Amino acid sequence: TTDITYSGLFAHDNGSTGIYMNSQGGKVKNCLSTGNGRLASDFGDRGGIGSYQGGNIKIIGNEVYLNGQDNQDADMEISVVGAIAPITIEKNHVHNCIQGCIQIAEGGDGSVVSYNVINGFGSAVSATPSSSGKWGGIRIGGGTGSAKNVRILNNVILGGLQPNTTSHAGIYVSQFDNPGLILKNNIFYNNASKDVFVHSTGITTGIDFSNNIYYKSDFANNWYWKGSDASSLNEWRSISQLDNASLDVNPLFIDPVNYDFHLGVGSPAINNGVYVGLTTDIDNQAIIGNPDIGAYEDQGPDFLPTSMSAIRSGGNRVYVLDAVFNQGGNSLNSIVINYYLSTDNKFSNDDLQLLCSKTQEILSSGQTSSLIRTTCYKPSNVMRSVNYNVLVMDDASNNVVENNEINNVGVAGVVSW
Question: If you ran DSSP here, which 8-state letter would residue 177 be given?
Answer without folding.
Answer: B
